[in-house]
Amino acid sequence: LGATMAAVTAAQSGWNVIYLGANVPVEEIAFTADCKDARAAAISLSYPLDDPRVPDLLTELRQQLPASCHLLVGGIASNRHLRVLESLGALQSDDLSQLSAQLDRLR
Known about the structure:
The protein has helices spanning 2-12, 26-35, 54-64, 82-88, 96-106; strands at residues 40-44, 70-74, 91-92. It is globular. Strand 1, helix 3 (54-64) and strand 2 form a beta-alpha-beta unit. Helix 2 (26-35) runs parallel beside helix 3. By secondary structure, it is mainly alpha-helical. The mean pLDDT is 93.
């Protein structure tokens, strides 16, 4: 639900949104971002909160995304990964208004 709400927020801010769905593999996210010349890719981290694979998956996603594509991360579990998000240069948002402000700054 969080990713859907983020997609609606981005669309309301004037972004051309492509919603891929839940549990999408890293390769598919990166492929779509590359094919569509995406300026941003947003993901939502939810459950399980303590999934030990998340840091490696985030790193893999950042490596596969085009360099010009910003990575935005939200969701209830995103605060648990602040260190890795910071090291990757990803933007973390706690709510939709913060996401909206971040998207406005990326324009």
